[in-house]
Amino acid sequence: MSDFVKITEQSSLYNNLEKKDVGTILKEINQEDHKIADAVEKTLPIIEQLVEEMIPRLERGGRIFYIGAGTSGRIGVLDASEIPPTFGMPPTLFIGLIAGGDVALRNPVENAEDTEEMAWHDLQEHRINENDTVIGIAASGTTPYVVAGIREARKRGILTAGVTSNPGSPVALAADHAIVTVVGPEYVTGSSRMKSGTAQKLVLNMISTTLMIKTGRVEGNKMVNMQLSNKKLVERGTNILVERLGLNPELARRELLEAGSVRAVLDKYES
After folding, report:
1. CA distance 271 to 261
2. How much is the pTM?
3. Residues 53, 82, 116, 219: which is the catalytic one?
4. Is 113 a catalytic residue?
């Protein structure tokens, strides 16, 4: 821990921001954002190893828990909440837990992230078990809620990962797999909702999307299990069936609405 430096708290590479014109501010933020994908790329071997270990757990009925506080917690909840409509999975497969509970999604909850025992308490409410995976998200890598949750889960033989922007941080050291996206100081000093938060979203998107592809929720490059929750998704599903089966659009749409998913129609016609 002696070498641990909070890169996320280091002073911005830019100064006198309030004196800059709008165009300059936007250009400089964009310049910093270009660094994010490169930082994530360096973590790909770790993400690959993690996902490879998650797949058999998922096939045994395991779930994925994201735990975080503040921005990090919200990003976890966001990724988890997008799995059911995108891939037609139950909302109990990916579970986003945020320090302070759902109220913290919109409003800060005082001292919520500093309560170490709450993460494991929250996980236990979902009867977490050895087939599950816990992914802790903390830009600083020091959030007590996240660190304690990862440590407790790992101690009980549950697969863990930590997503952070600070190498050598407690989150990185606590997890089985440390995904450390070193994006550098933020444009506004310490504002980890910017580069660090974007890197977190990219990492979680990679993990969840790859898992869904490898467990049969995508065919070709199409979301064949998506929920038909609005006109756009019904139209997308219809177009998939027209392209794949050669049906006329009216028939494709009728079959889709009757069957409830693209997958069900494909099974009917191709079985």
Report:
1. 15
2. 0.93
3. 82
4. yes
163 close to 204: Cβ distance less than 8 angstroms: yes
Q: Per-residue confidence of the chain (271 residues) as pLDDT tens digits?
A: 447 889 999 999 999 999 999 999 999 999 999 999 999 999 999 999 999 999 999 999 999 999 999 999 999 999 999 999 999 999 999 999 999 988 888 887 766 777 788 999 999 999 999 999 999 999 999 999 999 999 999 999 999 999 999 999 999 999 999 999 999 999 999 999 999 999 999 999 999 999 999 999 998 999 989 889 899 999 999 999 999 999 999 999 999 999 999 999 999 998 7
- Paired residues of 163 in beta bridges: 137, 179
Q: Are 4 and 166 in contact (CB under 8 A)?
A: yes
DSSP track, the chain: -TT---GGGSPPS---GGGS-HHHHHHHHHHHHHHHHHHHHTTHHHHHHHHHHHHHHHHTT--EEEEE-HHHHHHHHHHHHHHHHHH---TTSEEEEETT-GGGGTS--TTGGG-THHHHHHHHTTT--TT-EEEEE-SSS--HHHHHHHHHHHHTT-EEEEEESSTT-HHHHHSSEEEE----S-SSTT-TTTHHHHHHHHHHHHHHHHHHHHTTS-BTTB-TT----SHHHHHHHHHHHHHHH---HHHHHHHHHHHSSHHHHHHHHH-
Instruction: Quote the longest CA-to-CA distance of the chain.
Output: 67
Tokens for 240, please give them.
Answer: 């998939």
Residue type, 227: Q
Which candidate in 113, 152, 186, 255 is catalytic?
A: 113
